[in-house]
Amino acid sequence: MTEAIKSSLRDSKTARWVVLILVSLAMLTAYLFMEILSPLKTMVQNAYGWDNSQWGIVTGAQGYLNVFAGMLILGGIILDKMGIRFTAITSGIVMLGGAALKYYAFIAEPGGDILGIPSQVFLAASGFAIFCVGAETAGITVSKILVKWFKGKELALSMGLEMASARLGSALALFGSPRIAAAMDIPTPIMFAAILLLVGLILFLVYAMMDAKYDKEGEAVASESDSSDDFKISDIGHIIKNPGFWYIALLCLLFYSAVFPFYKYGPDLMVNKYGVDPAKAGDIPGWLPIGTMLLTPVFGTLYDRKGKGASIMILGAILLIVVHLIYWTPSLDTVGFAYLAVIVLGIGFSLVPSAMWPSVPKIVEDRYLGTSYALIFFIQNIGLMGIPILVGKVLDIMNPGVSDKLDAARESLKAQGLSASEVGDKITEMRIAGDLPNYDYTNTWLIFVGLTIAALFLAIMLKRQDKKSGYGLEKPNMA
């Protein structure tokens, strides 16, 4: 009886698509803030004197609480225990609080050290870590919302459209943030993005009221109140015994570790390798989320109607290898190659997620979905935390003396009474003129090449496991 009522609710096409619009726009604001600092690496280093390792500390903060404090696992448990509405609203509040702290770190420019880390770096990393607890929990919550409303229907398409909306948020950050910072100052785009998070929280509240209204009218029995969905510790045991879960979780770890850190370092690569103006540093990487925004729903529809999910993931991994080989090769240093690589990256980044996330409900039972998504995001966050830190450390090691020369020039300019913004502009001019050195990314980029090769291996193993276990990854989602 409960399933029949749920089905009748999901059969309301208008309700389904209104839900999709609400949660997609909310995630757009989350991803916009997620990447708002990414295209500003060169500006931040020039203005505030961060080295690459400190940049890695801040951009890798995504996983500090989610991994070390187990907040993502806790988020999945809360989702399964407390339900979709509570978790969505709570995650929105947490995102807003973390964003406020990160903004404070830049507007206040605190001096001194905290735990041996410059105070500004520590506070920016702490704010981003708190924000990411909310953002990742919101991500698994939205995934469960879409499974609830679209399973057996346009599930892959709905997930593709939601991811497309999130990618639009990333694109807006990559294109807009450096231009706003160049015209005003670095804290201003962070402030704008934080205000939009408040809009995202309001959208989650509207969704919660809509969902509650259906429950009160008797048109749906909330799946979150169904005792069969209550979290049990044994759920984790059921999930981790499934080999398919590990293949897709580790593929997610490797794949996203080869893509999302590109947002953090790609704009700086464009400045240092291809000679792009720092005010336009996000333009070439910005085409990546635009491409995925357009293509992910297309590939999602293909998976819904034609299947071949495991094969789609293999093809996507191959394309990523090609992309990072282009960025790694020293002789391919013209802007045309940078654009070519980001186009191919956009295709690859559309293929894998369009098949990966809709495949999870085929591999694990519905009652374990919230915890399964949380575990996958937890594993993913290990890479999203570790890879930016590793890249920053390796970049400093492979470029001895560069940070010292930049610091010396910065201190000289500060002694003249220039503000951080003015110092940053002067340092940028000196680097463009060749008076100060740039960073060489060649050896560092081999990290991404290795990740993509490992991702291809996992994608092949997942397809083999699908044949063995009969998950149906190669079958269409729609009957």
Any overview of this molecule?
This protein is mainly α. The chain has a single domain, classed as Growth Hormone, Chain: A. It is 78% helix and 1% strand. The protein is built from 20 helices and 2 strands. Strands 1-2 form a two-stranded antiparallel sheet. Helix 3 packs across helix 19 (420-433) and helix 12 runs antiparallel to helix 16. The chain is globular. Mean pLDDT is 87; it is low at 1-7 and 219-228. It comes from Carboxylicivirga sediminis.
Chain-wise SSE layout:
Layout lengths: L1 H9 L2 H22 L6 H8 L3 H8 L4 H5 L2 H12 L1 H25 L4 E2 L2 E2 H32 L4 H29 L3 H30 L16 H8 L2 H15 L2 H15 L8 H24 L2 H20 L6 H29 L5 H30 L3 H13 L5 H14 L12 H24 L10
Keywords:
mainly alpha, globular, 20 helices, 479 residues, Growth Hormone, Chain: A
In short:
By secondary structure, this protein is an all-alpha fold. The protein has helices spanning 2-10, 13-34, 41-48, 52-59, 64-68, 71-82, 84-108, 119-150, 155-183, 187-216, 233-240, 243-257, 260-274, 283-306, 309-328, 335-363, 369-398, 402-414, 420-433, 446-469, and strands at 113-114, 117-118.
